[in-house]
Amino acid sequence: MLTAKIGKVGKVLICGMKGVGKTTLLEQLIYGNVNMDTELHPTIEDIYVASVDTGRGGARETLRIYDSAGLQGKGQLPRHYLYFPDGYVLVYDPTDPSSLDMLADIKTDIDRNKEKKDNVAIIVLANMRARNRRDSPASPPIQVTQPQSQQQQPDPVESVLNRANSWCARERIKHYTVNAMERPSLYEPFISLCARLHPPPTKSSFPQLRQVMQKTQKNDS
Ligand SMILES: Nc1nc2c(ncn2[C@@H]2O[C@H](COP(=O)(O)OP(=O)(O)OP(=O)(O)O)[C@@H](O)[C@H]2O)c(=O)[nH]1
Fold first, then answer.
1. To which H or E segment does residue 53 belong?
2. CATH of domain 6-133+153-220
3. What are the pocket residues of ligand 1 if the criterion is a CB atom closer than 6 Å to any ligand atom?
4. SS3 of 135, please?
5. Which of 77, 79, 120, 164 has the fewest CB atoms nearer than 10 Å to its CB?
């Protein structure tokens, strides 16, 4: 008799403003085939399945990742996205502060519907978009020396990242800076999200209960 056990599949939705790089991140994470010249089209909806090694004794866990259409205007997710996911990956582009503001709206929406599904895991990714080589020549042809008052202006990307850090700390969600062009930068957020969605089975401290559980497992197999 075939007794293969199918483990729980973690369902994750990746969402955020239109064009922040959601599909690029997923294509890079799963296939590793994205470069500066890759052309991607706006998403309607796609599903990716990832088999993740969370480093717990070699067993692999499965994530089903739903890539959603980027949002515009008010950050309101289509209603069905509030019910099925076990986890959310919220993505923004630190060069566009409004893409971070939108995540706050999305998070509020998720929280409002939490009673329908408890224990939802959320992470936030800042996609540090490496600029296209065509956009940024190695050394600009004309060097402009800025007046001192301008030099002291805080870096706008840095201040968006700081704002994101404070918001994530308040909301108790993990904030990662990643770069869609650097695959290794994507591993940690997805591995830790996967580990949260697949917690190790808890060992009972009651020996009798443990024996009953072991017996049941034997009978199942
Ligand atoms: N240079 C550069 N381009 C990027 C990066 N990430 C995304 N892009 C480009 O930005 C555009 C939009 O990227 P997508 O991954 O399609 O963005 P998305 O958030 O999935 O877009 P929607 O599906 O429309 O919401 C594409 O042309 C990508 O090639 C990056 O890190 N660097």
1. strand 45-53
2. 3.40.50.300
3. 18-24, 36, 38, 40, 42-43, 69-70, 127, 129-132, 179-181
4. coil
5. 79
Q: For ligand 1, atom 14, which residue shows the shortest CA distance?
A: 21
* pTM for this entry: 0.82
Which amino acid residue places its CA nearest to atom 30 of ligand 1?
129
- Rounded to the nearest angstrom, the distance between the alpha carbon of 36 and the centre of ligand 1 is 10
For residue range 112-133, what is the model confidence (pLDDT) as tens digits?
887 666 679 999 999 998 655 4
Assign 24 to helix, strand or coil.
helix
Break the chain into its structural domains and give their ranges. Answer: 6-133+153-220
ipTM for this model: 0.95
- The residue whose CA has the least distance to atom 6 of ligand 1 is 21
> Is residue 180 within 8 Å of 127, Cβ to Cβ?
yes
